[in-house]
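Our preliminary data section would be incomplete without showing what the modeling component actually yields. Below, a chain of 565 amino acids is followed by its predicted structure, encoded as tokens that our downstream tools consume directly.
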Amino acid sequence: MHVWPSAEPERNLNYRLPVVKGQVAGGAPIYSPRVRAEYDSIIIGGGHNGLATAAYLGRAGVKPLVLERREVLGGAAVSEHPWPGYTVSTLSYVLSLMPPEVMNELELRRHGLTLYPLAADYYVPFPDGSHLLLTKDSQQARDEIAKFSTKDADAWPEFSAYLAKMARLVRPLLLMTPPAVGAKSPADLLELARFAWKLKGLDVKGTGDFVKVMTLSVAELLDEWFESPQVKAARCVSGAIGTYGGPYTPGTAYVLLHHYIGEIDGQMAEWAFVRGGTGSVSEAIAADAREHGADIRAATPVARILIESGRAVGVALADGTELRARVVISNAHPRTTFCELVGAHQLPADFVRSIDRYKTRSGTVKVNLALAEPPRFRGLEADDSATAARSFIQLCDSMEYLERAFDDAKYGRPSAAPYSDGVIPTMVDDSLAPAGKHVMSCFTQYVPASWSQAPHREELEAYADRVIEGYTRFAPNLKTAVEHRQVLGPYDMEQEYGLVGGNIMHGDLTLDQLFSWRPVAGYADYRTPIKGLYLCGSGTHPGGGISGINGRNASREILKDLKRN
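Predicted structure:
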């Protein structure tokens, strides 16, 4: 069924989609140049980047329609209610990577976004009963580290300054459209010149540092700075989180930096709980989009993108309805977009090969717990225990522990001793659980990447048992405090949330899949081989995380093209 345009005032970009007047040999349509689209833009997927794209386009007067397959908005940044009285950040569970540009431009605080910074970076207990509890207080962090190594205590602020310097260098690159490296057109050469200008502050040493952080494993990077296994344990996890690799996998040093780039209220490398769960981020962005003219529809799955004469002209919904637009923007995973919604026959063969080779693996399992009481940490004073409960609670006591956990998955087994980052947002947010109850959100690794192909329910439940047992070793009351639990493996993440392979970043953050090569060389500018079809999701530059940057950047390029046409 085709839905004809409604009678509405003409929008401000004088562009018209053509209408079919007949057919030529081979089925190619013949067009008349002047027929109005129903929408200026259709965005497939109501994850936070799709919503951000809608908000930015709406602010520019380009009316967007957002179509979300699920009944709830947010994609992986979603708040759901698996048990009566509880609100759970089902997948993504803390906020850091969103830059102030997005926060301020979309007025997210005015739309109700409330943040609670974590009290500490990490609480890391060790088998001998010792621990590291690292806060932002430089003297406190120094004293904690000095328990294990005075040399590392001296190196810690220098290492933090090193990461901050690299973050300041990389951060402007995240907000730009990647140039097409190797292209020779004047426009591409101009973009390369702009890119080079952003790196103008690099000297010889700085260039070496930049190359290291982009290519080394996080283990190699930490070995250059620290001697204490405990300090390395505290830092290595940020290089492996969301990655199908261990701390000795090349390229994981950049993953550490990727998690260091964000800021909250001007504080770099700060992380925060979101009141109401991470779905509140998506809802705040959606509120801004609606305020600026966006039509947002949940429970509206798209079956395919309509392509006519090599151009995207709209979408067909699962119920057969066809909707037309000036441009179509996909917030879905690149593989979903091109292999399912477009189809290989519509695309260049070399592009299809590149998409087929795009790495999107995962060993992640999310374990969400409803607790009758908060964990009580063995050996901590009351004040430290309260701080630990408002930080990342780490189940990983050495780089070797993390590497062994990955080795299990690499050779086809779930980790015998899983790694986990756990947080308890109810320590600061009373909206998430009944009075006196708590939610614990555990981001864990690893299971084999092949588990995205089947549910593995029994094995996942046994894996979750091992996560809880691991925490119970230093929080003895945790096991008996669990009243409900939710266990989501790669299969669940792909089938329910559209994360192909269960990869929370929409693809590995490896050097060959970053910047000008994400998702495919020559198409890192949010455009695609199909005219009028764009990408805006985490499979584009700069990758995953709750940032809204992908949507901000994509909308900028879309507006440029609409203005030209």
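DSSP finds 18 helices and 22 strands in the chain. Residues 1-36 have pLDDT under 50 and may be disordered. Preliminary results of this kind motivate Aim 1 of the renewal.
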